[in-house]
Amino acid sequence: MPQYTVNFGIEETYAKAKAALIEKGCSVVYEEQPRQLVVRQGSLWGISPKTAHKTVTVTFKLTGDKTNMTYRSKLASDWKNVTIVGCVLSLVLGVVCVWMALDLSQFMFNGNPSFWSWLITSNDTIRVNTGEAFVNLAYGLAVFLSIIIVIETAIYVYAGRNIEVFTETTLTQLT
Predict the structure, then answer these.
(1) Digit-coded pLDDT (tens) for 98-140
(2) Residue 44 to residues 51, 52, 80, 144, 150: CA-CA distances in angstroms?
(3) pTM of the complete model
(4) Which of 43, 92, 115, 163 is most buried, by the most CB atoms less than 10 A from its CB?
(5) How far apart are the first and last CA of the chain?
(6) Which CATH number fits domain 3-76+161-171: 3.40.50.150, 3.40.50.360, 3.30.310.80, 3.40.50.11190?
């Protein structure tokens, strides 16, 4: 766990750290003065380590005339769940789009009725132009959803790896 030492007493360090975190938009979840402070920061819709919804725990320990702060940040479970559920839903919808495109392409090729064939059939006539539009739209949507999954995964990994940045920059500015 990362740590930072300041030249203040434990009470003063605790007060300054709490004030600095609250100033940066944190809300206190739990505090055991002057030993431990737990805060929440960020938004459910945040996409950077600084703005993602997280829980920060800071532990204070007096060492001589200095105070050692040990801190740990972790992504909030609601933020992780929204990201994971979004990726899963995008994947499912992407698979349905590919299935629809393949099914309609096969129907236009051989004329055998299939699960999605009703979309491009009118009065027992196959609407090829409509079918091609549906196929292109479905493939385009599948590609778009794949890109969204890649972006969301990159955001998740980036935020998880750099989650300590917010706490580190806030606590190292204590003077």
Answers:
(1) 999 999 999 999 888 899 999 898 888 888 899 999 999 999 9
(2) 9, 6, 9, 23, 19
(3) 0.81
(4) 163
(5) 22
(6) 3.30.310.80
